[in-house]
Protein backbone atom coordinates (compact mmCIF):
# COMPACT_ATOMS: atom_id res chain seq x y z
CA UNK A 1 0.00 0.00 0.00
CA UNK A 2 1.63 3.23 -1.12
CA UNK A 3 1.54 6.49 0.76
CA UNK A 4 -0.44 8.49 -1.76
CA UNK A 5 -3.06 5.82 -2.34
CA UNK A 6 -3.63 5.62 1.38
CA UNK A 7 -3.71 9.39 1.61
CA UNK A 8 -6.46 9.87 -0.95
CA UNK A 9 -8.55 7.25 0.78
CA UNK A 10 -8.10 9.07 4.07
CA UNK A 11 -8.74 12.59 2.81
CA UNK A 12 -12.41 11.73 2.93
CA UNK A 13 -12.06 11.18 6.68
CA UNK A 14 -11.16 14.79 7.50
CA UNK A 15 -14.60 15.59 8.84
CA UNK A 16 -14.87 12.30 10.74
CA UNK A 17 -11.41 12.61 12.33
CA UNK A 18 -12.98 14.49 15.23
CA UNK A 19 -15.88 12.07 15.65
CA UNK A 20 -16.09 8.62 17.22
CA UNK A 21 -17.29 6.43 14.34
CA UNK A 22 -15.56 5.49 11.10
CA UNK A 23 -17.29 6.47 7.83
CA UNK A 24 -18.70 4.27 5.13
CA UNK A 25 -17.88 5.29 1.56
CA UNK A 26 -20.18 5.56 -1.42
CA UNK A 27 -18.54 6.33 -4.79
CA UNK A 28 -20.57 7.56 -7.75
CA UNK A 29 -20.09 9.43 -11.01
CA UNK A 30 -22.49 12.29 -11.61
CA UNK A 31 -22.16 13.62 -15.14
CA UNK A 32 -19.36 16.23 -15.00
CA UNK A 33 -18.10 15.52 -11.48
CA UNK A 34 -16.76 12.73 -9.27
CA UNK A 35 -18.41 12.68 -5.85
CA UNK A 36 -17.12 10.76 -2.83
CA UNK A 37 -19.78 10.69 -0.10
CA UNK A 38 -19.09 9.64 3.50
CA UNK A 39 -20.86 9.79 6.83
CA UNK A 40 -24.21 11.59 6.90
CA UNK A 41 -23.28 14.83 5.23
CA UNK A 42 -19.63 14.77 4.18
CA UNK A 43 -18.52 14.71 0.56
CA UNK A 44 -15.49 15.39 -1.62
CA UNK A 45 -16.22 16.65 -5.16
CA UNK A 46 -13.84 16.65 -8.14
CA UNK A 47 -15.33 18.77 -10.95
CA UNK A 48 -14.51 18.18 -14.63
CA UNK A 49 -15.68 20.29 -17.53
CA UNK A 50 -16.41 17.54 -20.03
CA UNK A 51 -16.42 13.86 -20.66
CA UNK A 52 -13.00 14.18 -22.29
CA UNK A 53 -11.62 15.76 -19.12
CA UNK A 54 -13.09 12.93 -17.09
CA UNK A 55 -11.41 10.36 -19.35
CA UNK A 56 -8.13 12.23 -18.88
CA UNK A 57 -8.62 12.15 -15.09
CA UNK A 58 -9.10 8.40 -15.22
CA UNK A 59 -5.89 7.96 -17.20
CA UNK A 60 -3.77 9.88 -14.67
CA UNK A 61 -1.89 7.88 -12.07
CA UNK A 62 -1.72 8.89 -8.45
CA UNK A 63 1.82 10.33 -8.71
CA UNK A 64 0.76 12.69 -11.52
CA UNK A 65 -2.11 13.96 -9.38
CA UNK A 66 0.22 14.57 -6.44
CA UNK A 67 2.75 16.43 -8.60
CA UNK A 68 0.01 18.64 -9.94
CA UNK A 69 -0.77 19.74 -6.37
CA UNK A 70 2.81 21.11 -6.01
CA UNK A 71 3.01 20.17 -2.32
CA UNK A 72 6.04 21.08 -0.21
CA UNK A 73 7.72 18.58 2.10
CA UNK A 74 9.19 19.52 5.48
CA UNK A 75 12.86 18.53 5.07
CA UNK A 76 13.45 18.33 8.84
CA UNK A 77 10.57 16.00 9.73
CA UNK A 78 9.83 14.43 6.33
CA UNK A 79 6.13 15.37 6.75
CA UNK A 80 3.93 16.41 3.85
CA UNK A 81 0.92 18.66 4.58
CA UNK A 82 -1.98 17.78 2.30
CA UNK A 83 -4.98 19.61 3.80
CA UNK A 84 -4.92 22.73 5.95
CA UNK A 85 -7.55 25.16 7.25
CA UNK A 86 -6.85 28.84 6.70
CA UNK A 87 -8.28 30.97 9.51
CA UNK A 88 -9.60 34.54 9.29
CA UNK A 89 -6.51 35.93 11.02
CA UNK A 90 -4.29 34.50 8.28
CA UNK A 91 -2.93 31.58 10.28
CA UNK A 92 -3.35 27.97 9.15
CA UNK A 93 -4.12 24.73 10.94
CA UNK A 94 -2.79 21.50 9.49
CA UNK A 95 -5.49 18.85 9.19
CA UNK A 96 -3.97 16.09 7.07
CA UNK A 97 -0.24 15.26 7.23
CA UNK A 98 1.68 12.26 5.96
CA UNK A 99 5.16 10.95 6.78
CA UNK A 100 6.93 8.10 5.00
CA UNK A 101 10.04 6.29 6.30
CA UNK A 102 10.98 3.41 4.02
CA UNK A 103 8.27 0.78 4.37
CA UNK A 104 6.54 2.67 7.17
CA UNK A 105 3.85 5.26 6.43
CA UNK A 106 2.07 7.47 8.96
CA UNK A 107 -0.95 9.68 8.20
CA UNK A 108 -2.34 12.15 10.75
CA UNK A 109 -5.87 13.50 10.34
CA UNK A 110 -6.68 15.94 13.10
CA UNK A 111 -6.46 13.85 16.27
CA UNK A 112 -6.38 10.56 14.36
CA UNK A 113 -3.21 8.67 13.45
CA UNK A 114 -3.12 5.90 10.84
CA UNK A 115 0.05 3.81 10.75
CA UNK A 116 0.91 1.38 7.93
CA UNK A 117 3.82 -1.05 8.25
CA UNK A 118 4.90 -3.04 5.18
CA UNK A 119 8.24 -4.27 6.56
CA UNK A 120 6.94 -7.80 7.22
CA UNK A 121 5.26 -10.43 5.10
CA UNK A 122 1.84 -9.01 5.92
CA UNK A 123 0.87 -5.33 5.85
CA UNK A 124 -0.13 -4.00 9.28
CA UNK A 125 -2.52 -1.07 9.67
CA UNK A 126 -3.14 0.56 13.03
CA UNK A 127 -5.52 3.46 13.79
CA UNK A 128 -5.11 5.57 16.93
CA UNK A 129 -7.30 8.42 18.18
CA UNK A 130 -5.17 9.52 21.15
CA UNK A 131 -4.46 13.18 20.50
CA UNK A 132 -1.92 13.36 23.28
CA UNK A 133 0.32 10.61 21.88
CA UNK A 134 3.59 12.00 20.58
CA UNK A 135 5.45 10.75 17.58
CA UNK A 136 8.68 8.95 18.42
CA UNK A 137 11.67 10.95 17.16
CA UNK A 138 14.16 9.10 14.92
CA UNK A 139 17.05 10.34 17.08
CA UNK A 140 17.11 11.13 20.78
CA UNK A 141 19.59 11.70 23.60
CA UNK A 142 19.18 10.75 27.24
CA UNK A 143 21.03 10.21 30.52
CA UNK A 144 20.99 7.07 32.65
CA UNK A 145 22.64 5.64 35.76
CA UNK A 146 24.04 2.14 36.25
CA UNK A 147 23.99 0.65 39.76
CA UNK A 148 25.39 -2.84 40.15
CA UNK A 149 27.55 -5.26 42.11
CA UNK A 150 31.04 -6.36 41.05
CA UNK A 151 32.96 -9.58 41.07
CA UNK A 152 35.54 -11.22 38.84
CA UNK A 153 36.18 -14.59 37.24
CA UNK A 154 39.40 -16.55 37.46
CA UNK A 155 40.96 -18.40 34.45
CA UNK A 156 38.64 -21.35 35.17
CA UNK A 157 35.60 -19.11 34.69
CA UNK A 158 34.65 -19.26 38.38
CA UNK A 159 34.36 -16.72 41.18
CA UNK A 160 37.39 -16.86 43.50
CA UNK A 161 36.68 -18.94 46.59
CA UNK A 162 36.83 -17.53 50.13
CA UNK A 163 40.29 -18.96 50.79
CA UNK A 164 41.75 -16.46 48.28
CA UNK A 165 42.73 -13.12 49.88
CA UNK A 166 41.24 -11.20 46.92
CA UNK A 167 37.82 -12.93 47.01
CA UNK A 168 35.21 -10.14 47.03
CA UNK A 169 32.12 -9.60 49.12
CA UNK A 170 29.06 -9.08 46.93
CA UNK A 171 27.38 -6.57 49.24
CA UNK A 172 29.65 -3.55 49.20
CA UNK A 173 31.42 -4.25 45.90
CA UNK A 174 29.47 -1.55 44.11
CA UNK A 175 29.60 -0.29 40.56
CA UNK A 176 28.26 3.17 39.71
CA UNK A 177 28.01 4.39 36.12
CA UNK A 178 26.96 7.81 34.82
CA UNK A 179 26.19 7.59 31.09
CA UNK A 180 25.26 10.15 28.43
CA UNK A 181 23.59 8.16 25.65
CA UNK A 182 22.00 8.63 22.24
CA UNK A 183 19.68 6.35 20.26
CA UNK A 184 19.30 6.31 16.48
CA UNK A 185 16.25 4.50 15.14
CA UNK A 186 17.24 2.20 12.28
CA UNK A 187 13.79 0.73 11.67
CA UNK A 188 10.68 0.06 13.69
CA UNK A 189 11.79 -1.34 17.05
CA UNK A 190 15.46 -1.51 15.99
CA UNK A 191 17.93 1.05 17.40
CA UNK A 192 21.60 1.88 17.51
CA UNK A 193 22.54 3.08 21.03
CA UNK A 194 25.89 4.73 21.75
CA UNK A 195 27.38 7.03 24.33
CA UNK A 196 30.10 7.82 26.84
CA UNK A 197 30.19 7.57 30.61
CA UNK A 198 32.13 7.33 33.85
CA UNK A 199 32.32 4.06 35.79
CA UNK A 200 33.43 3.71 39.42
CA UNK A 201 34.35 0.20 40.60
CA UNK A 202 34.77 -1.05 44.17
CA UNK A 203 36.03 -4.56 44.92
CA UNK A 204 35.49 -5.12 48.64
CA UNK A 205 37.42 -8.11 49.97
CA UNK A 206 35.52 -10.79 51.81
CA UNK A 207 38.45 -11.35 54.18
CA UNK A 208 38.95 -7.96 55.79
CA UNK A 209 42.22 -9.02 57.46
CA UNK A 210 44.05 -8.81 54.11
CA UNK A 211 45.31 -5.52 52.73
CA UNK A 212 46.26 -4.87 49.10
CA UNK A 213 49.53 -2.98 48.89
CA UNK A 214 51.88 -1.93 46.13
CA UNK A 215 54.89 -4.23 46.08
CA UNK A 216 58.11 -3.74 44.17
CA UNK A 217 56.96 -5.60 41.04
CA UNK A 218 53.31 -6.49 41.64
CA UNK A 219 50.36 -6.00 43.92
CA UNK A 220 50.59 -7.96 47.15
CA UNK A 221 47.94 -9.11 49.63
CA UNK A 222 49.30 -9.16 53.18
CA UNK A 223 47.52 -10.38 56.29
CA UNK A 224 47.29 -7.75 59.03
CA UNK A 225 47.53 -9.48 62.41
CA UNK A 226 48.69 -6.33 64.15
CA UNK A 227 45.32 -4.52 63.89
CA UNK A 228 41.60 -5.19 63.78
CA UNK A 229 40.63 -4.64 60.16
CA UNK A 230 36.99 -3.98 59.22
CA UNK A 231 37.20 -2.85 55.58
CA UNK A 232 39.59 -3.67 52.75
CA UNK A 233 39.05 -2.92 49.08
CA UNK A 234 40.43 -1.87 45.71
CA UNK A 235 38.75 0.88 43.69
CA UNK A 236 39.18 2.07 40.11
CA UNK A 237 37.52 4.62 37.84
CA UNK A 238 37.23 4.71 34.04
CA UNK A 239 35.91 6.84 31.24
CA UNK A 240 34.12 4.46 28.89
CA UNK A 241 32.65 4.60 25.38
CA UNK A 242 30.01 2.03 24.49
CA UNK A 243 27.75 1.06 21.60
CA UNK A 244 24.87 -1.41 21.37
CA UNK A 245 22.23 -2.65 18.97
CA UNK A 246 18.78 -2.78 20.57
CA UNK A 247 15.64 -4.72 19.67
CA UNK A 248 12.41 -3.43 21.22
CA UNK A 249 9.70 -6.04 20.62
CA UNK A 250 7.08 -3.81 22.23
CA UNK A 251 7.65 -1.11 19.61
CA UNK A 252 7.69 -3.73 16.86
CA UNK A 253 4.26 -5.00 17.95
CA UNK A 254 2.89 -1.49 18.66
CA UNK A 255 2.75 -2.18 22.42
CA UNK A 256 4.95 0.74 23.41
CA UNK A 257 7.18 0.08 26.42
CA UNK A 258 5.24 -3.00 27.51
CA UNK A 259 7.28 -5.45 25.44
CA UNK A 260 10.63 -7.14 25.90
CA UNK A 261 13.81 -5.21 25.06
CA UNK A 262 17.26 -6.68 24.50
CA UNK A 263 20.53 -4.94 23.62
CA UNK A 264 24.17 -5.93 23.34
CA UNK A 265 27.44 -4.43 22.19
CA UNK A 266 31.09 -3.69 22.98
CA UNK A 267 32.67 -1.04 25.19
CA UNK A 268 36.17 0.30 25.81
CA UNK A 269 37.48 2.46 28.63
CA UNK A 270 40.54 4.27 29.90
CA UNK A 271 41.50 4.25 33.57
CA UNK A 272 41.37 7.57 35.43
CA UNK A 273 42.48 6.38 38.86
CA UNK A 274 42.92 3.44 41.21
CA UNK A 275 43.81 2.84 44.82
CA UNK A 276 43.56 0.41 47.71
CA UNK A 277 41.93 1.31 51.00
CA UNK A 278 42.25 -0.43 54.35
CA UNK A 279 40.23 0.67 57.40
CA UNK A 280 41.16 -0.67 60.84
CA UNK A 281 41.42 -0.11 64.57
CA UNK A 282 44.51 -0.74 66.60
CA UNK A 283 44.49 -3.66 69.02
CA UNK A 284 44.64 -1.28 71.95
CA UNK A 285 41.28 0.22 71.01
CA UNK A 286 42.22 3.34 69.06
CA UNK A 287 39.83 5.20 66.82
CA UNK A 288 39.19 4.33 63.22
CA UNK A 289 42.16 4.73 60.87
CA UNK A 290 42.62 4.38 57.12
CA UNK A 291 45.53 3.40 54.93
CA UNK A 292 45.34 4.37 51.25
CA UNK A 293 47.83 3.39 48.57
CA UNK A 294 48.07 4.15 44.89
CA UNK A 295 47.79 0.65 43.46
CA UNK A 296 46.76 1.96 40.03
CA UNK A 297 50.31 1.31 38.91
CA UNK A 298 49.43 -2.39 38.52
CA UNK A 299 45.92 -1.99 37.08
CA UNK A 300 45.41 -2.17 33.33
CA UNK A 301 45.08 1.29 31.86
CA UNK A 302 42.61 0.08 29.23
CA UNK A 303 39.58 -2.12 29.64
CA UNK A 304 37.32 -3.56 26.97
CA UNK A 305 34.45 -5.99 26.99
CA UNK A 306 30.83 -6.74 26.18
CA UNK A 307 27.67 -5.23 27.67
CA UNK A 308 24.18 -6.74 27.55
CA UNK A 309 20.80 -5.36 28.61
CA UNK A 310 17.34 -6.86 29.02
CA UNK A 311 14.26 -4.95 30.05
CA UNK A 312 10.47 -4.99 30.31
CA UNK A 313 8.45 -1.84 30.83
CA UNK A 314 10.47 0.71 32.76
CA UNK A 315 12.83 -1.85 34.32
CA UNK A 316 16.17 -2.62 32.61
CA UNK A 317 18.92 -4.93 33.86
CA UNK A 318 22.49 -4.90 32.58
CA UNK A 319 25.66 -6.95 32.78
CA UNK A 320 29.21 -6.18 31.69
CA UNK A 321 32.18 -8.50 31.28
CA UNK A 322 35.75 -7.34 30.73
CA UNK A 323 37.56 -9.38 28.11
CA UNK A 324 40.91 -8.28 29.53
CA UNK A 325 42.12 -8.71 33.11
CA UNK A 326 41.87 -6.18 35.92
CA UNK A 327 45.61 -6.28 36.63
CA UNK A 328 48.47 -6.03 34.20
CA UNK A 329 50.11 -9.27 33.11
CA UNK A 330 52.28 -10.77 35.88
CA UNK A 331 51.45 -7.80 38.14
CA UNK A 332 48.57 -9.45 40.00
CA UNK A 333 46.10 -12.35 39.92
CA UNK A 334 44.49 -13.10 36.54
CA UNK A 335 40.93 -11.84 37.07
CA UNK A 336 38.28 -10.61 34.61
CA UNK A 337 35.75 -8.17 36.18
CA UNK A 338 32.03 -8.87 35.78
CA UNK A 339 29.11 -6.69 36.89
CA UNK A 340 25.36 -7.24 37.33
CA UNK A 341 22.93 -4.40 37.97
CA UNK A 342 19.99 -2.24 37.06
CA UNK A 343 19.70 0.85 34.84
CA UNK A 344 17.86 3.93 36.10
TrEMBL record:
Keyword Signal found: yes
Keywords, in A-Z order: Signal
Signal sequence, renumbered to the chain: 1-19
Listed name of the protein: Uncharacterized protein
Source organism per UniProt: Algoriphagus kandeliae
Amino acid sequence: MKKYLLLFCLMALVQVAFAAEMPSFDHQINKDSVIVEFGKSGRVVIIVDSKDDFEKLKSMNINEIIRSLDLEENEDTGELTIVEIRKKDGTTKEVVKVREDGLETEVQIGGMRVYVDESGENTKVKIETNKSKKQEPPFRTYFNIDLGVNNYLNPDGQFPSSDNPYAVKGWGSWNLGLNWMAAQRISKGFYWDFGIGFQFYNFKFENRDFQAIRGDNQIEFIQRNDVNGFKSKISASYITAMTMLELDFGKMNDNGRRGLRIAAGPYAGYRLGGQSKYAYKELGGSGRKKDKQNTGLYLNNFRYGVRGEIGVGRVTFFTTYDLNTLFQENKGPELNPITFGIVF
